[in-house]
Amino acid sequence: MTATRVRPPSVADPRPSDTTIVEPLPKPAVAGRFPGDDLVDTQAMLIESIESAPPVEERTVRYTLSFSSGDMVEVTGSGLIGRRPITQPGEAVDQLVALNDPARSVSKTHLEFGLEGDELWICDRYSGNGTVARPLGGVARQCEAGRRYRVTRGTRVEIGDQWFDVG
After folding, report:
1. Distance (Å, rounded) from C-alpha 151 to C-alpha 11?
2. Phi and psi for 40 in degrees, rounded to 5?
3. DSSP code at position 30
4. Residue 102 has pLDDT above 70, yes or no
5. Mean per-residue pLDDT over the chain, rounded
6. Are 85 and 100 in contact (CB under 8 A)?
7. Which of 22, 73, 83, 103 has the fewest beta carbons under 10 Å from its own?
8. Can you tell me the distance from the alpha carbon of 159 to that of 130, in angstroms, rounded to the nearest whole number?
9. In what order do the strands lie in the sheet containing 95-98?
């Protein structure tokens, strides 16, 4: 099979010649104003409003996990809880929370948590002893592994023989 060579089309010289004709600016529709002036004014107003806007506030909703061991952790993003939590290849989290559990009722990587908007969620990571969420004044729920559950303040989350309260 032989390849056919294709020549690129010739391009005219982009440099202006001595005979270049320059078009005059269009006449203003309103005395003293040219087309496009409104666009410039709008852009200037937009830039001014952005510069004068108040700074973006940091997340005001904070969650604290209070563990049965007495430890407390402030949730700052996504995280894993377990005896020796580790991420999967390619996975990134903000926090690793290691629990001391001599009875080994908590899996190495037992639970995942994170924030979505202003809400906290948990997800059992296919742990050996499962995860139970007990909302304050509500019905306890066995968490299905791999499924996210929203948890509210006052919920007690049981992981093996350990637990933490959401505050």
Report:
1. 65
2. -60, -45
3. B
4. yes
5. 80
6. no
7. 22
8. 6
9. 95-98, 79-82, 111-116, 119-124, 148-151
User: What order do you get walking across the sheet with 131-134 strand by strand?
Assistant: 72-74, 64-67, 162-166, 156-159, 131-134, 141-142
Handedness of CA 80, 82, 86, 88 (dihedral sign): negative
User: What's the topology of domain 64-166?
Assistant: Tumour Suppressor Smad4 (2.60.200)
Residues 6 or more apart whose CB falls under 8 angstroms from that of 81 comprise 97, 99, 106, 110, 111, 112, 113, 159, 164
Tokens linked to 75: 């949730």
Query: Cα(109)–Cα(89) distance, rounded to whole angstroms?
Result: 14
Q: What angle do CA 110, 93, 111 make, to 5 degrees?
A: 15
Which helix (H) or strand (E) segment holds residue 67: the answer is strand 64-67
pLDDT value of position 61: 72
For the chain, which residues make up each domain, given as ranges? Answer: 64-166
